[in-house]
Amino acid sequence: MMNRIIVALDGMSKEQIFTYLDEIKGEINFVKIGMEAYYKYGRELLIEIKNRYDVSLFLDLKLHDIPNTVKGAIRSLEGLPIEFLTVHLQGGKNMLREAKKQKDISLPRTKLLGVSYLTSLDEQDFLEIWNTEKEDIEDSFIRLFKIAEDCKLEGIVCSAVEATLVKERFNLQVISPGIRLRDDLKANKIGDQRRVLCAKDALSRGCDYLVIGRSLTTKERPYKESLSLLKKEL
Ligand code: C5P
């Protein structure tokens, strides 16, 4: 089960990232670098992590711009040793098709994942941003998943709450953030996330991978303790 866990390395300096990876070595083999670390340290960070730890890498840049710019951004990532890369599905089909085409050229071994709606959005956000009422939210998700499938993306990033919707109708991998250890859920430590589940419930909904950040990287517990709590839950 631990091979389905991706740890999100947010809010850490390069040194902290390496300290963390030294400590969890051999326990988790998939890590996610987001825009925070990538903007600061660039491609060298990814190459260094790969060389030192030989873990799989998820580069979560959530690209969202006009097709030509996204295409150029992906070209700039050429040759990076990454397993997953994210684009926003709301960029539309033209952007997604250009992204996929360029990804196949520049990063042939990487899977392109479409970010649906962020796991931090709640019903009020759906109403304010898209004038979408509660009962229509599910349909909005399904339309985005269909766009991902039409553009031949390999997977979707969505909350585990929507994972069953994807698995029932689409042939897409599901990667879900918004996961908390049970203890953190009980203490309502969900931070800015809204559609949140524990790891076991998320996996039972059909998620292929779970992205877990703060529940595993919090300094409130030793890193190893967070990991063993997770293992006990699974
Ligand atoms: O700390 P936490 O477990 O909430 O971290 C979740 C991670 O997943 C963050 O790195 C965040 O950028 C990412 N993410 C997300 N929601 C999405 C896509 C990615 O929370 N829809």
Low-confidence stretches: none
CATH homologous superfamily grouping: Aldolase class I
In N-to-C order, the SSE pattern is EHEHEHEHEHHEHEHHEHH
Overall number of domains: 1
CATH domain class name: Alpha Beta
Question: DSSP helix count?
Answer: 11
Structural class: alpha/beta
Percent of residues in beta strands = 15-25%
Radius of gyration: 17 Å
- The gross shape turns out to be globular
Q: Percentage of helical residues?
A: 40-55%
Average predicted confidence as pLDDT: 95
For the record, the CATH architecture stands as Alpha-Beta Barrel
Annotation, overall tally of beta strands: 8
* Cα end-to-end separation: 7 Å
Largest sheet: 8 strands, parallel, barrel
List bound small molecules: cytidine-5'-monophosphate
Main sheet strand line-up:
1-2-3-4-5-6-7-8
User: CATH topology, which one?
Assistant: TIM Barrel
Can you describe this structure in just a few lines?
The protein has 234 residues and is of the alpha/beta class. It has 11 helices and 8 strands.
Describe it for me?
The structure is a single chain. By secondary structure, the protein is an alpha/beta fold. The chain has one domain: TIM Barrel. The protein has an eight-stranded parallel beta barrel, surrounded by four helices. α1 crosses α2 and α3 runs parallel beside α4. The mean pLDDT is 95. Bound molecules: cytidine-5'-monophosphate. The site of cytidine-5'-monophosphate (C5P) has 17 residues, from β8 and α10.
